[in-house]
Amino acid sequence: ITKEQRALIKAILDAYNRHQIPQDVTKKLLQEQYSAEENFLLLTEVATSQVQVLVEFTKNIPGFLSLDREDQIALLKGSAVEAMFLRSAQVLSKKMPSGYTEVLEERIRKSGMSEEFITPMFNFYKSIGELHMTQEEQALLTTITILTPDRPYVKSHEAVERLQETMLDVLRKLCVLQHPQEPQYFARLLGRLTELRTLHHYHVEMLTSWKTNDHKFTPLLCEIWDVQ
Ligand SMILES: CC1(C)[C@H]2CC[C@]1(C)[C@H](OC(=O)c1ccc(O)cc1)C2
């Protein structure tokens, strides 16, 4: 790993750790009572704050702000749900001290979401947990997800691809260094990105089913996922 690559890892890790869901949101998760309505409202807060955190994190990805402005928006809209599932998987797979994991899991299960989404979602969380990713790997994998060139409406495909390749190169080297006994570890990480795309598809249906049951989203969530 070159000096530049080490600096890149540090910049991304600092940004990833600096932008976390605010305490007041996580505290609410532990306090509010359990009803499908209350759970949905809390998940709305969690999702909204995760999008805000994602936007701040993305601005700190070296090179992101030098991309075409419209492409920046296209990448954010295209990757928001995958980045959100990735970040919540990392939270849920860690056994949080305050029982936060169980509470969030319980609220997700009882929020009016249909069973057909719950199963794949928790299978994904389990498969992420089994990888025991380091912080750097989590931050880099999220960055790689955001810098996916083939999102809808991305114009300068090559510019995004070049940026993503830089990150893939760093992650590959990091995996070799941090998991020497597992030569296929890097490939397993990338395999999770494929699983994320399936969740992305389920998520669209999840939103639609909430919408048809007259659930209200926040303006930010409507904007990022083009929900009217
Ligand atoms: C953990 C998750 C990634 C999983 C369950 C909650 C999440 C934060 C996300 O919720 C929403 O997308 C969502 C969208 C709109 C809304 O009003 C509420 C939640 C899906």
Provide the fold topology.
Elements: H1 3-18, H2 23-31, H3 36-59, H4 69-93, H5 100-109, H6 115-131, H7 135-146, H8 157-178, H9 185-212, H10 219-224
The structure holds the ligand CC1(C)[C@H]2CC[C@]1(C)[C@H](OC(=O)c1ccc(O)cc1)C2.
Mind telling me the C-alpha Rg?
Answer: 17 Å
The proportion of strand residues reads under 5%
Dominant shape: globular
SSE topology string:
HHHHHHHHHH
Total beta strand runs: 0
Main β-sheet description: none
Walk me through what this model shows.
- There is one protein chain.
- With 228 residues, the chain is mainly alpha-helical.
- The protein has helices spanning 3-18, 23-31, 36-59, 69-93, 100-109, 115-131, 135-146, 157-178, 185-212, 219-224.
- α1 crosses α7 (135-146), α4 crosses α6 (115-131) and α4 runs antiparallel to α7.
- The chain is globular, with a radius of gyration of 17 Å.
- The model has no long low-confidence stretch (mean pLDDT 92).
- The protein binds the ligand CC1(C)[C@H]2CC[C@]1(C)[C@H](OC(=O)c1ccc(O)cc1)C2.
